[in-house]
């Protein structure tokens, strides 16, 4: 089952996370699963989200997969000028 949700974060949080990502990771306003896997802070964020969602659903966190994070708050590819404070998480669970 696929789904998603939004999470508002401070500019400081997003900028701090961006410090550890590849230099161009935020240029497209999307953090891919591969970019998250390559960055310890982004991977920890994805794991924390999976654990929280799993707890809410009453399932094991291993059943939740975060497939990407849109950093401009919408699912339209690229940056839409809406700012980078609303994170929209894409994922699925089995």
Question: Would you kindly provide a written description of the structure presented here, covering whatever features stand out?
Answer:
This protein has 94 residues and is an alpha+beta fold. Strands 1-4-3-2 form a 4-stranded antiparallel sheet. It is built from 3 helices and 4 strands, in the order βαβααββ. The protein has helices at residues 11-20, 33-38, 40-57; strands spanning 2-8, 30-32, 64-70, 86-93. Helices cover 36% and strands 27% of the residues. The mean pLDDT is 78.
Q: What is the topology?
A:
Elements: E1 2-8, H1 11-20, E2 30-32, H2 33-38, H3 40-57, E3 64-70, E4 86-93
Antiparallel strand pairs: 1-4, 2-3, 3-4
Q: Would you tell me the structural class of the helices and strands?
A: alpha+beta
> How many strands, what sense, and barrel or not for the largest sheet?
4 strands, antiparallel
The gyration radius over C-alpha positions equals 13 Å
Outline, from the CA principal axes?
globular
Task: Count the E strands.
Answer: 4
What does the average pLDDT come to?
78
- The side-by-side strand order for the widest beta sheet comes to 1-4-3-2
| N- to C-terminal distance | 6 Å
Q: Would you identify the regions where 5 or more consecutive residues have pLDDT less than 50? A: none
Annotation field: number of helices: 3
Q: Percent range for helical residues?
A: 25-40%
N-to-C series of helices and strands: EHEHHEE
Share of β-strand residues: 25-35%
């Amino acid at each position: 089952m696929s789904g998603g949700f939004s999470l508002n974060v401070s500019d400081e949080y997003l900028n701090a996370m961006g410090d550890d990502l590849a230099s161009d990771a935020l240029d497209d306003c999307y953090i891919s699963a591969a970019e998250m896997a390559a960055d310890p802070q982004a991977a920890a964020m994805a794991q924390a989200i999976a654990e929280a969602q799993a707890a809410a659903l009453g399932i094991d966190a291993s059943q939740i997969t975060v497939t990407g994070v849109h950093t401009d708050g919408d699912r339209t590819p690229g940056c839409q000028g809406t700012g980078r404070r609303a994170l929209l998480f894409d994922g699925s669970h089995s």
